[in-house]
Design a protein that fits this description.
The complex is a heterodimer of chains A (about 120) and B (about 190). With about 120 residues, chain A is α/β, with parallel strands linked by helices. Chain A has a domain of about 80 residues. Helices cover about 40% and strands about 10% of the residues of chain A. Chain A contains 4 helices and 4 strands. Chain A has a 3-stranded parallel beta sheet with strand order 1-2-3, with helices on both faces. In chain A, helix 2 links the parallel strand 1 and strand 2. The relative contact order of chain A is 0.12. With about 190 residues, chain B is an alpha/beta fold. In chain B, strands 3, 4, 5, 6 and 7 form a 5-stranded mixed beta sheet that branches. Chain B has 3 helices and 7 strands; from the N terminus they run ββαββαββαβ. Chain B has 2 domains: about 35 residues, no CATH class; about 120 residues, no CATH class. The chains are: A alpha/beta (about 120), B alpha/beta (about 190). Strand 4 of chain A pairs antiparallel with strand 1 of chain B, so a sheet runs across the interface.
């Protein structure tokens, strides 16, 4: 999505990303970014919390007109209710080493079988 | 299901930061999750021999809004797929897709992108494709209105496909709709 933002922006349309993977977005480099410190999946706010979602979108709209330079990041003023969420995504449990290797082996087989034909040499 | 809707806290006021690259190797409360590091370690544990190389650029484009925000038509973008996954062709290639803001699918397909399936869920479309709250804000005059279509862009391993195929397609669709700017909401 960061690459798309850069392309659209380079062609004259301002963009703003609302997202939760701060390191990935800022590593790429984008014009405007509203960082929401939530688990991946709900960049605009927790499910059914229209009040938070509204504030986040309002911040993005404001940033579209107020940013004066690229790489401008605003952090939304909310924290996720469950304090333990940070450790879950993509964690590696050493006790499950063999299980993870097997998951990887199956995934590679599945990917090879389902790889898009036109891009088969790219991944 | 974990109750994620209970108590919320206000944190410090929003701050504008001119940021440098941000990867932080910490899971301490208040520190952004280091997704790049986490992903490298996870895929190594799965037996992959090469680390993914994330795109990075020294230069970042910047375009100013050409009219007051109150007069601007804004488009929404998502990384979700249509519910029937009809953006996948017979060669299994995923394409940019679009939907009507006036009649969006209730549950776009999200299982094929990476998100924290242990900590949350995507049953509320507004949590990643905020049509309703954006429409409210437009109705209050904050901006002129949403473009007629929202657009879905595939999350691809191949950066070349995103740069050469999908991003130009998105730009073309934004122009067709007369959008003045875009809000992109990757899951």
């Amino acid at each position: 999505m960061s690459l798309a933002a850069r392309h659209v922006e380079a062609n004259g349309l301002p963009t703003v990303i609302i997202g939760s993977a701060r390191d990935v977005v800022e590593h790429c480099g984008v014009p405007r970014f509203v960082f929401t410190d939530f688990p991946l999946g709900n960049p605009c706010g927790p499910p059914y919390r229209r009040d938070i979602q509204r504030t986040v979108v309002a911040m993005a709209l404001d940033l579209l007109s107020s940013a004066s330079a690229p790489r401008t990041t605003i952090a939304a003023p909310f924290v996720w209710e469950d304090p333990d969420w940070r450790g879950r995504y993509g964690r590696v449990d050493p006790a499950k080493r063999e299980e993870l290797l097997e998951i990887g082996r199956r995934r590679r087989m599945s990917r090879a079988a389902n790889r898009p034909r036109s891009t088969a040499n790219e991944s | 299901m974990r109750n994620i809707l209970a108590i919320w806290q206000r944190r410090r006021p929003p701050e504008v930061e001119a940021t440098a690259a941000g990867g932080l190797a910490s899971v301490m409360a208040g520190q952004p999750v280091p997704y790049m590091e986490r992903t490298r370690l996870y895929y190594r544990a799965l037996g992959y021999e090469s680390d993914y190389v994330w795109a990075t650029f020294a230069d970042v484009p910047f375009a100013r809004l050409q009219k007051p925000l109150a007069e601007a038509k804004i488009a929404l973008l998502t990384t979700a797929s249509p519910p029937d996954r009809s953006n996948v062709d017979s060669d299994r290639v995923r394409h940019v897709w679009s939907g009507l803001v006036a009649d969006p699918p209730e549950r776009p397909f999200t299982d094929n992108v990476a998100w924290d399936k242990e900590s949350t869920h995507t049953r509320d479309r507004g949590s990643y494709l905020p049509i309703e709250v954006a429409t409210e804000l437009a109705g209050e005059g904050v901006f002129a209105g949403l473009a007629a279509h929202f657009h879905g862009i595939p999350t691809e391993y191949s950066q070349r496909k995103t740069l050469e195929v999908d991003a130009p397609q998105v730009l073309s669709r934004l122009r067709d709709d007369g959008a003045d700017a875009a809000i992109l909401c990757p899951l």
